[in-house]
Amino acid sequence: MNLSIAIFSLFTSFLSFNWSTTKIYPVNIVKTEADSIKPVEKLSITKAFVLGKFDYKTDTTFIKVSAQHSAKPIYLNKDVYSAFLEMYNAALKDDVQLVILSGTRNFEEQKAIWERKWHRYSILKPIERAQKILEYSSMPSSSRHHWGTDLDLNSLSNSYFSSEKGKAIYDWLILNAHKFGFYQVYTTKENGRTGYNLEKWHWSYLPLAHQYLEFYNSNISIDDINDFEGFEIAKELHIIEDYVNGISQQAKNYN
Predict the structure, then answer these.
(1) What's residue 42's pLDDT?
(2) Using an 8 Å Cβ cutoff, are 137 and 113 in contact?
(3) 130-140 average pLDDT score
(4) Which of 33, 48, 238, 239 is most buried when burial is the number of CB atoms within 10 A of its CB?
(5) In the sheet where 150-153 sits, what is the strand order?
(6) Angle at 191 (CA atoms; ends 188, 197), nearest 5 degrees
(7) What is the percent of the chain where pLDDT is above 70?
(8) How many beta carbons lie within 10 A of that of residue 145, not counting itself?
(9) Which of 35, 130, 153 is nearest to 84 (CA)?
(10) pLDDT for position 254
(11) How far, in Å, CA of 91 to CA of 57, rounded?
(12) DSSP 8-state secondary structure symbol assigned to residue 26
């Protein structure tokens, strides 16, 4: 009998409690290294980074690619390399071997490529010289290779990917690469895509790259593209509008 009275008293106290004056505090869940799923964090991006003006070899978010997966010493963003390894292993199961020919290039490295070609085509007028280079190479501070998100795979020749072996690799990538976050950004220009020519070898890890591009478009102006031979014609060539943003519609729509 006494137990029944106690339960009734507790119940009436619960009903009479003034909930309107009580503050409910949210519970903060702290994830540890043991958690299998990492929380999605907003990237810390700077102008210097997207312009390629940093040393990726000392940046802790970058890692050197194993010689097993590359044709020369190459660095990538750690998350990008991790995703590539998953794609690499999946491809091997289908008798397709992927080899990274090029990865991260900072401003100085891109400048060396640009100015070497600038001198090579010295017989052309400046605007024609730049357009010739821009068929396949970016102006420094406008390359996706600055970000450690983009890879050149297996060959730098479109014709290779029409050969028997190359076609098998390309067909596999078209069918499967997106499952690992990689997309071909420089597709055919038949549908109005501007900028660089078709590059069947160039694949971009969009989970990161699309965030870097958004930052680039919000924070970088044509005045930030400078300090190399021929930079003065970047505005006339619409480098940001037609080249930095001259990517496939699928890449533009990525979210």
Answers:
(1) 59
(2) yes
(3) 98
(4) 239
(5) 100-102, 150-153, 202-205, 182-184
(6) 30
(7) 84
(8) 22
(9) 153
(10) 95
(11) 28
(12) P
Tokens of 135: 């068929």
In this prediction, residue 44 has a pLDDT band, given cuts at 50, 70 and 90, of confident
Identify residue 149 by its one-letter amino acid code. Answer: T
* DSSP 8-state class, residue 233: G
Could you tell me the sign of the dihedral formed by the alpha carbons of 207, 210, 212, 215, in that order?
Answer: negative
Query: Tell me, what DSSP letter sits at residue 70?
Result: B
Q: Rounded mean pLDDT of the chain?
A: 87
Domains of the chain, each with CATH number or no CATH = 38-252 (3.30.1380.10)
Nearest alpha carbon to residue 214 among 181, 246, 245: 245
Neighbours of 235 (CB within 10 A): 13
Please answer whether residues 133 and 121 qualify as being in contact, where contact means their C-beta atoms are separated by less than 8 angstroms: yes
Closest CA to 114 of 231, 212, 237: 231
DSSP 3-state of 231: helix
pLDDT number for residue 43: 74
In this model, does residue 189 exceed pLDDT 50? yes
Contact 142, 243 (CB under 8 A): yes
pTM (predicted TM-score): 0.83
